[in-house]
């Protein structure tokens, strides 16, 4: 592992075995997802000027876009190009590369892809995903928020909140506990269906956005 670009985060000596996260500026950091003490890994990537322009033009022309498709690992680009024919080739290529990486990492023959333009929080409450692992990346706009395991009380998730909003339910103690990914980050989030991670899945939510802001969100799941 490249120690110059990858950092491992742990709360303190008392919580050193608590699932934490890893981040780095190289895509190889994604292989850290197999470490038992991690429930998220983040590749901090930067967009090329060409991709940034393609994303902005696409959002401008498709403010209400939302599609879900299942594609094979062997022909992801061709299938995405056919199913998402509104997308510029540069964006299709970028998504196809992420699908190929996801399938290679988990030895999958296919994957489920969802791309959506959003102007409201899709999942505004903190929650865990009932999947083994999900790839999440925000191509444009405000990115996903999450909570480190050591700051939260999981008994306050879902019905345990008794209808209280997240910030009043006791799920976490201070707004500074809420962490946020950056636009462009590629994150792998361990879910509740990851064997051995049933009780430590990453707790996250969609960010609140203004009516004038459009997010472009991609998720990739096991097919």
Strand tally, please? 11
Please report the first level of CATH classification, the CATH class. Mainly Beta
CATH superfamily: Jelly Rolls
CATH architecture: Sandwich
Q: Any low-confidence stretches, pLDDT <50, length ≥5?
A: 1-17
The overall number of domains is 1
- Overall shape: globular
CATH level 3 topology: Jelly Rolls
Major sheet characteristics: 8 strands, mixed
Strand content: 25-35%
Query: What proportion of the residues is helical, as a percent range?
Result: 10-25%
Strand order of the largest sheet: 1-2-3-9-6-11-5-4
Count of discrete alpha- or pi-helical segments spanning 4 or more residues: 4
Instruction: Evaluate the radius of gyration.
Output: 17 Å
Distance between the termini: 29 Å
How do the SSEs run, as a string of H and E?
EEEHEHHEEEHEEEE
Q: Which structural class matches the secondary elements? A: alpha+beta
Average residue-wise pLDDT: 88
Can you give a write-up of this model?
With 223 residues, the protein is of the alpha+beta class. It has one domain: Sandwich (Jelly Rolls). The chain is built from four helices and eleven strands. Strands 1-2-3-9-6-11-5-4 form an eight-stranded mixed sheet. The protein has a three-stranded antiparallel sheet with strand order 8-7-10, with no helix packed on it. Helix 2 (76-83) packs across helix 3. It is globular, with a radius of gyration of 17 Å.
